[in-house]
Amino acid sequence: MLSSGVLVTLSLSGPQLEHVCVDRTLVGRLPAGTVTDALLTDRLILLSFLENGQAAAVFLNRKKQDSPEAGRRTDKLSPSEIKLLSVEVGGAKLRRRVALNRLQDVALCWWSRSAEDSRTSDEHRPDLVLIGCSAAEGLQVLSPVQTEGSLLDCCFSGSHHYQLLTVEVPGGPGGLSLGSCVDSCVYEYRRGRLHRLSAARIPLPSPPVCCSRQRSDAAVLLGLQDSSVVLHDLGRGVSLHASCAFPPTLLAWHPAGAMVVVGGEQQELMCFDVGMAPLNVALVAEEVVPTATLQLTQHMSRSGGLRRLQWAAGADAGPAGPDGGPAGPDGGPAGPDTLMLVFEGGPLASLRFKLGALTGGRLGPGELLQQRLRCGQVREAVGVLQAMDWSAAPEEVYGGLSAVTNHLLKLQLSADREALLEAALGVFYAPPAPLPETLVLEYQEPVSTYARRFFHHLLRHQRFEKAFLLAVDLQDSSLFMDLHYVAADKGEVVLADAAERKANEIRAAAGAGDDDLLRGRTVPTPSSHRPGERNRTAAGASSKPPTAGRTNQRRPLSVGVPVTVSPEMLKTPTGRSRNAPSGSFRNGLGGKLRRSAVSDGYFCPSVLCEGSKRPPLHWLSS
């Protein structure tokens, strides 16, 4: 849709332009002359205008909506099959944006208030208008709202049809923008009004310029004035920062959610994965030279700047898409691979990504993680793994964890690889937010297999102190006995004796626990989870309280932090209940789970009394 109301349909066949249809049916029929935003569906075309403070909808009556050919015609509109309706939304001469919910019965029109507009306008002037869409009843304003801050982004929720998700720049005294933070807000339309349900403040190192929300609504990406981008996970409260080679002005998430394209006004492009690590790109040529930044000015001569990025139609075909799509190289659904580029004053261009046969034409987090491993980029693969969501795709996350740990366990142990193994296992054992108990019960045994392999990997490379701390948290007597025999062979008498004592303690505690269950006693479980506790080293771990304040940052990948075991750690503690564990997992399992000791067949419950503090995860270095 051009600003004049001309509708242009482009059909591509591979890299070739197959058909162009220019339709001027709407020119002269619209209530205003300059279109600022348009949304095209099979049922209607939603429009906003620069003048007159109006929004309009063009209802289409081409075919039945369940027809397989609906939305595929490339011929021109007919005046007899369209119905044009408009509504006043108010506001000055501003660039308004529109959006439509999935049911296509409610639309919204919003605009961003400038500092001057905020100071001069009255306090009840709205900047967000909810509109009812019905071909029979027409367009009607449902609820005009003035948000507390200046809108940076606004859209409908993908899971709740009548919820709005906004990103607002909070205003200070006199209407001035605070600039160093944004508010992520949730609104809901009910009982004839729009109510704000929640607001979460996201601190930023620099004022925001642009914003884009993941299709799953789980994260928000912000482009900042200091040539950087910030990815904030709304559910886990984790922020990731990355630097750009230029000031970002445009953001376009790949629909599968694994990659984002960042654009600048001077026709620059950069690609980042979901872990905010840059992806090298290169145009197809005989001599491929991948770079982090793609300069479009080297390949086309245009004076106008880059104004919009949009993934092509059919972009719902990726792993996260609900509508299916074209077949990929493996016969399954292929992901979107074409990005549309819009320049000031023209022309239109498309950038087609060659995803390759190994990914099956997909570009989801799992495929990107595997590709990182094939290229030997393990640190970047761990970053993708840490950004994946257990609740949304548990099988994919476990597959990524398995791939990363298998890759690292085949290599010679080094300080950097040890830190990467800790980070990969920490996705399950030390997540930023508690995992659902059903997922914990399902994946505890498969993941513990990799933890045990990591333990024996440490033993083979004589990392006895770290192996001891890992065994403390796994609470497995067989691991302590393995450590006892290896340490004794290497002359580490004190460590060997301590490992044997710990194994005996665990067996005794397991036996006492079985007796308690036979008597009908109830094992207490922890009442709360502390996802923000800082991991502590073994020295002084039993006396220092946990440190809060880690919920808003992802734990960085430490590189070979040496761990020193205090002599007190190797002695049998006095005054400790025989059921009290020396350590437990940080993901809130505590007394809820029992871990099997393979060698002796005992179950070793990790018991915590109600209201007690959970011990630290000793084997993860601070």
UniProtKB/TrEMBL annotation:
Coiled coil: none
UniProt keyword list: Cell membrane, Cell projection, Cilium, Cilium biogenesis/degradation, Cytoplasm, Cytoskeleton, Membrane, Repeat, WD repeat
One Pfam family cited in the UniProt record for this chain: Frtz
Biased composition (Gly residues): 321-334
GO annotations of cellular component type: axonemal basal plate; plasma membrane
Region feature (Disordered): 314-336, 513-590
Compartments, as annotated in UniProt: Cell membrane; Cytoplasm, Cytoskeleton, Cilium axoneme
Top-rank lineage group of the source organism: Eukaryota
Compositionally biased region (Polar residues): 574-585
GO biological process, one term: cilium organization
Major subcellular location class: membrane
Keyword Cytoplasm among UniProt keywords: yes
Family under the similarity heading: Belongs to the WD repeat fritz family.
Protein name from the UniProt record: WD repeat containing planar cell polarity effector
Organism: Oryzias melastigma (Marine medaka)
